[in-house]
């Protein structure tokens, strides 16, 4: 009965979304305030209905209701409760229900907290959001019903994919979806602005918090997914340029560009059409990621489904949304006139450079991701090629290097017309620090990858430049220290957020550089008592023993790690076999230090009692996770800024409810 309630609530949500997509839009066009306000009520009601539907599916998983097909295919009575709950979204049907739930969450948030929004813009944005939801409701109800029953009920379930039975993967999809779907709100505001034919500083102020919230969640989701891949897949790395990884990275790149572009619109009333374009592209990449994961056109450990019929439905939906939005953009964008003028050497110019490099990088990732699919399609499957890390690293790193270098310079330039010479003089300490670390790295690494030297220099340049920019804001050493301290305390939270985000990226650059350029790997077979030395650390294999987990059997090995005779730590890597699916997984043993990670993996046993082992030393990996967390903290701190909490003031020229000028 509860499953039927969830199904019925989903049908009612579809009906509400259909009405929400029509009446508020007509009300905005006709200037009827009561019709516009209907968007608020229907957005909240839609959220309640989808929430009920999601709660019903969660109940089926928690109670192990094996009369529901989705539960049978993705759960088991012996599974720990955490993974029973995470199993709700650890499959295609449940993940799509999570998608529409988050879509409804953002719509409900705008309805409840967007009281400073002009009624017409708010009504149109919520109507667009509802129309997006209609497409996904139809997709779920017609092709991916999570409440389908089976009779007679199964005795037990088939268990969840063992790779997903992990704390990292329990929280990774919701965070990633909050980022993916969060860009739908920026998209809805962009389409609403195109319909109105007006983009101004106030519009940019309203869009920024929703874009920033999505960016924070997406940043956290990508970092969490990389962390999971790092310790769960057992290959010693954190990023494989997998197509599904790329599918989340592309909207992050465009979303980052969109955040910076919104600043230019708000401060200087320019780059309007470009900002609208980025908002459309960011959500388009989110939809593209949904298609890649669920269409069956690629194989990945991250993919949810391989049903071509479902892929065709999503492809049609993708073409309607993207094609329709770009058609509207081509028609209305020329009317978005910018009044702000600026020189190439200015803060606007620096932000534009950021946008161009971010956009180009996203294009490169898109090309590398889709090119194998194109070749496969035109050759009828005869020619199989893959595009891997060598291509992406060779193209992506040279694009990102000047962008990161410019991040230290841009904030020191004035709006409209800047002085590059003065900015570079201000950064002389950053030059010294970057050069000194580059020389030290070159001396230490003895002819290894040149990108290691570049990465350390760029990271030091950005970190030092960010601190210099902060000191310039508070006029450190140029006014009494007490006054500088007061300036520091009174800085807007958005300024603090920018400083943290830029500094976090510098830390992440150090981490990526260390793990990418200087990772040391050793693969061998080891008997108990044998020792392998990696990067000055002695890994002694103490043996392995069989253990019983909640729903798996595991071989747990023990390594004692020492340096210069002193014990540093013990590592306990595992090789698990889940009893229902008979699928093996790897749990790496990791000891984290600021200098690097000690990383051990145990493989199959041999007839002579030895085990295949892989030992790694991954330098500076922790800096990457710390950097990602710092970037997210910077975004959250910016969101708490009062300007974002209250939005922009109402425009007095237009009475409430009046039809906006076309």
Enumerate how many helices there are, as a single number. Answer: 21
- The amount of helix comes to 55-70%
Number of domains: 4
Shape: globular
From the alpha carbons, calculate the radius of gyration and give it in angstroms: 27 Å
* Proportion of residues in β-strands: 5-15%
Largest sheet: 6 strands, antiparallel
- The counted number of beta strands is 10
| Low confidence ranges | 648-662
Distance from N terminus to C terminus (CA atoms, Å) equals 51 Å
Structural class: alpha+beta
Q: If you average the pLDDT, what whole number results?
A: 89
TL;DR of this structure?
The chain has 662 residues and is α+β, with helices and mostly antiparallel strands. It has helices spanning 2-20, 23-30, 33-62, 69-74, 81-86, 92-113, 119-143, 167-196, 201-232, 243-268, 272-294, 308-332, 347-378, 389-409, 420-426, 428-445, 450-473, 481-490, 493-517, 621-639, 642-646; strands at residues 520-526, 531-534, 537-548, 552-563, 566-571, 574-578, 583-587, 589-592, 596-605, 611-619. The relative contact order is 0.09.
Structural notes for this entry:
The chain has 662 residues and is an alpha+beta fold. The chain folds into four domains: 165 residues, Up-down Bundle (Four Helix Bundle (Hemerythrin (Met), subunit A)); 215 residues, no CATH class; 103 residues, no CATH class; 102 residues, no CATH class. The chain contains 21 helices and ten strands. Strands 2, 3, 4, 5, 6 and 7 form a six-stranded antiparallel sheet that branches. It has a four-stranded antiparallel sheet with strand order 1-10-9-8, with helices on one face. A hairpin with a 3-residue loop joins strand 8 and strand 9. The protein is globular.
């Amino acid at each position: 009965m509860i499953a039927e309630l969830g199904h019925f609530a989903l049908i009612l949500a579809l009906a509400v979304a259909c009405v929400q997509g029509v009446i508020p839009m007509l009300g905005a066009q006709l200037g009827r305030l009561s019709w516009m306000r209907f968007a608020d009520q229907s957005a909240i009601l839609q959220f309640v209905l989808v929430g009920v539907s999601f709660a019903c599916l969660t109940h089926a998983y928690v109670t192990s209701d094996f009369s529901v097909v989705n539960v049978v295919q993705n759960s088991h009575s012996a599974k720990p409760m955490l993974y029973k709950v995470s199993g709700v979204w650890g499959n295609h049907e449940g993940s799509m229900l999570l998608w529409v739930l988050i879509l409804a969450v953002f719509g409900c948030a705008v309805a409840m907290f967007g009281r400073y929004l002009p009624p017409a813009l708010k009504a149109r944005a919520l109507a667009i959001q509802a129309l997006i939801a209609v497409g996904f409701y139809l997709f779920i109800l017609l092709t991916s019903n999570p409440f389908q029953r089976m009779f007679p009920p199964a005795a037990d379930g088939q268990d969840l994919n063992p790779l997903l039975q992990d704390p990292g993967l329990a929280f990774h999809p919701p965070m990633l979806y909050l980022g993916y779907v969060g860009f739908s709100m920026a998209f809805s505001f962009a389409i609403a602005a195109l319909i109105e034919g007006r983009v101004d500083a106030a519009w940019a102020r309203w869009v920024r918090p929703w874009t920033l919230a999505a960016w924070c969640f997406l940043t956290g989701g990508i970092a969490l997914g990389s962390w999971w891949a790092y310790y769960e897949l057992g290959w010693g790395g954190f990023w494989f340029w997998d197509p599904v990884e790329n599918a989340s990275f592309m909207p992050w790149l465009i979303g980052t560009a969109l955040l910076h572009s919104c600043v230019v619109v708000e401060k200087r009333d320019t780059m309007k059409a470009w900002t609208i374009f980025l908002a459309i592209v960011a959500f388009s990449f989110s939809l593209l990621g949904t298609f890649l994961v669920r269409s069956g056109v690629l194989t990945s450990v991250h993919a949810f489904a391989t049903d071509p019929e479902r892929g065709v439905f999503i492809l049609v939906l993708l073409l309607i949304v993207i094609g329709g939005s770009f058609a509207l953009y081509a028609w209305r964008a020329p009317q978005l006139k910018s009044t702000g003028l600026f020189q190439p050497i200015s803060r606007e110019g620096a932000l534009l450079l950021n946008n161009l490099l971010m956009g180009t990088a996203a294009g490169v990732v898109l090309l590398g991701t889709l090119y194998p699919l194109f070749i496969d399609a035109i050759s009828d499957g005869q020619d199989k090629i893959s595009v891997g890390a060598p291509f992406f690293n060779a193209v992506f790193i040279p694009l990102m290097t000047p962008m990161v270098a410019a991040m230290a310079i841009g904030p020191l330039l004035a709006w409209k017309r800047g002085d590059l010479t003065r900015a570079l003089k201000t950064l002389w300490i950053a030059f010294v620090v970057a050069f000194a670390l580059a020389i030290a790295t070159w001396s230490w690494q003895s002819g290894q990858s040149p990108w290691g030297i570049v990465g350390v220099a760029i990271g030091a340049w950005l970190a030092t430049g960010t601190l210099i920019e902060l000191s310039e804001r508070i006029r450190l050493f140029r006014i009494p220290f007490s006054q500088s301290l007061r300036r520091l305390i009174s800085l807007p939270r958005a300024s603090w957020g920018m400083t943290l985000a830029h500094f976090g990226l510098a830390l992440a650059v150090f981490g990526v550089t260390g793990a990418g350029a200087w990772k040391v790997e050793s693969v061998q077979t080891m008997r108990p008592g044998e020792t392998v030395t990696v990067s000055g650390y002695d890994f002694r294999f103490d043996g392995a023993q069989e253990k019983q987990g909640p729903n798996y059997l595991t071989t747990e090995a023990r390594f004692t790690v020492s340096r210069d005779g002193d014990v540093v730590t013990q590592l306990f890597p595992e090789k698990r076999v889940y009893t229902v699916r008979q699928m093996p997984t790897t749990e790496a043993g990791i000891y984290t230090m600021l200098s690097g990670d000690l990383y051990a993996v145990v493989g199959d046993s041999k007839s002579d009692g030895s085990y295949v082992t892989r030992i790694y030393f991954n330098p500076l990996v922790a800096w990457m996770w710390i950097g990602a967390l710092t970037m997210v903290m910077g975004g959250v701190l910016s969101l708490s800024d009062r300007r974002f909490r209250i939005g922009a003031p109402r425009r007095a020229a237009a009475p409430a409810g009046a039809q906006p000028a076309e």
